[in-house]
Amino acid sequence: MSDSDRLDPAVAAAEVAPLFNTLPLDPKLLRAVVDSGYTAMTPIQAKAIPIVLAGRDVMGAAQTGTGKTAAFTLPLLQKMLRHENASMSPARHPVRALVLAPTRELADQVADNVKKYAKHSQLRSVVVFGGIDMKPQTLALKAGVEVLIATPGRLLDHIEAKNAVLNQVEYVVLDEADRMLDIGFLPDLQRILSYLPRERQTLLFSATFSPEIKRLANSYLQDPVLVEVARPNAAATNVEQRFYSVADDDKRAAIKQLLRARELSQALIFVNSKIGAARLARTFERDGYKTQALHGDKSQDERLKALAAFKAGDVDLMVATDVAARGLDIADLPAVFNFDVPFHAEDYVHRIGRTGRAGASGLAVTLVARDDLRLVGDIEKLLKKKIEIEPFELEDDRPRRFRRRDEDDGPREAAAAAPPRAPATVYDRPRRAPPPGDPIFDKPYEPAATAASAAPAWETAPKPATAPVRVLSSNIRAKKKVASLLGG
User: Fold this and answer.
1) Could you give the CA distance from residue 234 to residue 252 in angstroms, rounded to a whole number?
2) Which of 272, 300, 271 is nearest to 291 (CA)?
3) Running DSSP on this structure, what letter comes out for residue 172?
4) How many Cβ atoms from other residues are within 10 Å of residue 440's Cβ?
5) d(CA 63, CA 231)
6) I need a labelling partner for 87 at 20 to 30 A (CA). Which of 149, 248, 253, 337 fits?
7) pLDDT tens, position by position, 283-304
8) For the chain, how are helix, strand and coil distributed in percent, rounded to 5?
9) Is 179 a residue whose pLDDT tops 70?
10) Exposure pattern of 193-218 as b/e (b: 16+ CB <10 Å)?
11) What is the rounded CA–CA span in Å between residue 307 and residue 321?
12) What is the pLDDT of residues 432-460, one digit of tens each?
């Protein structure tokens, strides 16, 4: 990648973002943008859309909540309008754009945006992800679609079932590319890319790009343009970030206290484990909050319903793992709490990016226990700034029992008038009586006086009388002795 292809973040931020109607976009797309309530472009949109329209590969890095989805959706829809047709034949609607997302929720959200921007055109789109029945997805794929949004695992299922044919794909988008290129997704991603034509345009968008991810991404891109509209791996500037030192046992009480003090109507609480999310949600539910848990062990239908209820304001607290940290757009979310410090520093940037979206302000609170200091140090290295961990003073909100003065004074005065008692010792305790003795077992052994001279009992015992010998007759044959085996 040459230096001429690198756009300076300071210059990009200094320039005023132009309006959407200054772009060479079809009136159908511009009308859909206006219907969505947008007129001016964000910096990432202003820089990336012309480059994508020019056919270059792009690696786009921007803060969360800055409109990266529209930055690749609008130019791809513009380039695919030349294939637009009203034919009912599936052969006339092959897959031309493939968008891969790491989580089901993000894939569903991207699909909603694609449908919103393509609603005035004849272009078709469908989203496929796991956790739900494949049959409706198969029917949609068999009918023909131009834009396919998918998670890697379910897309491979459809490829193996011959439901998805990708030999005419012209555009590939990796949303949240740093997670897509992670070691967990890399084998599936390589298999998917092997089904695609070599001649294609590839776009990578994310809020965080480590040097290792950049080197790996260059192997999938052809002479890419790096678009950075903010310092790499930077958190949103309109989010107030606070770090409090709180013991593990006091974290739930600290969140409740901050919710009251800040008068927060809603909050998203992140934990590191699925079991921890379920347990914490139950405890907040017992505290009187309308709470939902969002994690990978829930079915897709449960996850979508919980997310829809939270977006509609029917849920006060959403306790989630990092499945909700990537790309989810929750309008007017006032606060994010990190109940657990994330294991990966990049996830911190994505977590707090759920608040303060589209220029709004937000609050991000991280509760730090003694064992979390190393993880906080990793976040400092990523953000390249010193993090100040503030002490947190918990209010003692335990219920107290108040007694009347007249009830309390009498016993106290009587106790004061009584003479002081000396402290009891072990020697003052009454001793237990010993158990009664046994005269036979307590008697010592006394040997007999004639024991040495007396003969053994078996010698003095009387001998049994011998039976008279019976003489057999000569006519009677004696019985033969036969050996026998007696079981025992």
Assistant:
1) 28
2) 271
3) E
4) 6
5) 9
6) 149
7) 999 988 999 888 877 877 788 8
8) 40, 15, 45
9) yes
10) beebeeebbbbbbbbbbbeebbeebb
11) 13
12) 666 666 666 666 766 655 555 556 666 66
CA-CA distance, 204 to 403, in Å (whole number)? 68
Q: What is the DSSP letter of 40?
A: B
Retrieve residue 320's tokens.
Answer: 């989630």
Instruction: Compute and round to an integer the Cα radius of gyration of the chain.
Output: 41
Domains of the chain, first to last: 3-228 (3.40.50.300), 239-391 (3.40.50.300)
Judge contact between 130 and 104, C-beta under 8 A.
yes
**Cα end-to-end span (Å), the chain:** 94
Cα dist from 234 to 9, 146, 206, whole Å: 12, 34, 11
The pLDDT value recorded for residue 131 is 81
Q: How far is CA 366 from CA 57, 247, 349, in A?
A: 37, 12, 12
Give the pLDDT mean for 450-472. Answer: 59
SS3 350: helix
In terms of residues, how long is the chain? 488
What is the SS3 assignment for 338?
A: strand
d(CA 118, CA 115): 5
- Residue 135 one-letter amino acid: K
Residue 383, sorted as left (phi over 0), alpha (psi -120 to 50) or beta, turns out to be: alpha
The letter for the amino acid at 399 is P
Distance CA 387, CA 235 (A): 13
Residue with tokens 């994330």: 342
> What pTM, to 2 d.p., does this model score?
0.61
